[in-house]
Amino acid sequence: MDNYDNEDEGVELFGNGGLGAAYYSSNDLDPYLVDKDSEDEEEIEDMTIKPSDLLILTARNEDDVSHLEVWIYEDMSEDGTHNMYVHHDIMLPAFPLSLAWLDCDLKGGEKGNYVAIGTMQPEIEIWDLDILDAVEPAVTLGGYKQSSFSKVLSEKKKKKKKSAKLKEDSHSDAVLCLAWNHEFRNVLASGSADHSIKIWDVVTQKCEHTLNTHSDKVQAVAWHKEEPTALLSGSFDKTLALTDMRAPAHDGVRWPVSADVESLAWDPHTSHYFVVSLEDGMVSGHDIRKVVPASSGCPAKGGEPLFNIHAHDKAVCTVSYNAAIPHLLATGSIDKTVKLWHLKDNEPGFICSQNFKLGAVFASAFCNDSPFLLALGGSKGKLHVWDIMTEAEVARRFGRYRQSK
């Protein structure tokens, strides 16, 4: 956290999937295309989101101005050429640190299209991505009693904020991580520099639970996909914790690790496995079934790692599993490289490494709809999409997955 203010133009987090409600089958139905006669046809085409388009959310800061960008990635042909551009963006009031896309309709409908954003401020803003010219968030969770969005972010105002009163159950420091629950779609988890984890109902806009699981900054949270009440968290206190939200007061399971936690992810193919990446460049795999039971007032302790990889020379900021290819993991680091690993039989094998000149690699995400594409962002404020099948070793090992797609 001490270095977040020093990062230039960092692209912080990516999401893929869904601006479905922003697509219109005809330009005549699109409320955003108001002055059709004066609009250039190419511009109109660019603003129309097609079913085949892939969308990427990025949050970045440039010249002390922060904003969210909605990118469109178009596959133009089978020879690998593509087109990528910013469809629209949203100005943000503070330096962005975390994103989580959610489809829960805050207005009571069946589906929505929103993004929750954590920043250096204690509030969580939720923006409607189907509104192109939004000037304020649809919902703000926690934060100061007077909306930070309406304040000028001058040094004078920042100092004044220190004495401002927080809303009840708000975080009291920066929101470092967010995780949306895919099963209970109104539920959002947040981790903060104030050492706490909060569980929010985004519809009622209330904090349902506050977990004081950790003794330092909470850097990562992730809901289990098949057991949606299970929440995994990692902290700068050098521990991981697995909490069952059906009994949040219970200590759950703890794993000690060798350094500050940077990122973690559940294995989409083997539900009892997860990986964690650390500040010292290590990545380790764990099995939640291997637990030493609680005793003498001590919480249950996770077993020894299934494997350890010295993946990078510096902090590993991001890990991402591939949803189509079992055991395929991407890692990104402060050392400016992104690497691919094969974790079959818990015997990690290095596949390849690339430096895309992004600076420190802060974020990575495989696309669920086109699983051979990996979105990457880093400290230079650039977005890069890597087609991993252009790597000879990847194509040799996993080409059959493209053929069966």
From TrEMBL:
Q: Tell me the SUPFAM superfamilies matching this sequence.
A: WD40 repeat-like
Entries under SMART domains matching the protein: WD40
Q: Which residues form a coiled coil?
A: none
A GO term (biological process) for this protein?
A: rRNA processing
InterPro entries from the xrefs?
PWP1, WD40/YVTN_repeat-like_dom_sf, WD40_PAC1, WD40_repeat_CS, WD40_repeat_dom_sf, WD40_rpt
Provide this UniProt record's keywords sorted from A to Z. Answer: Phosphoprotein, Repeat, WD repeat
- For this entry, the protein name equals Uncharacterized protein
Q: Which organism is it from?
A: Ceratopteris richardii (Triangle waterfern)
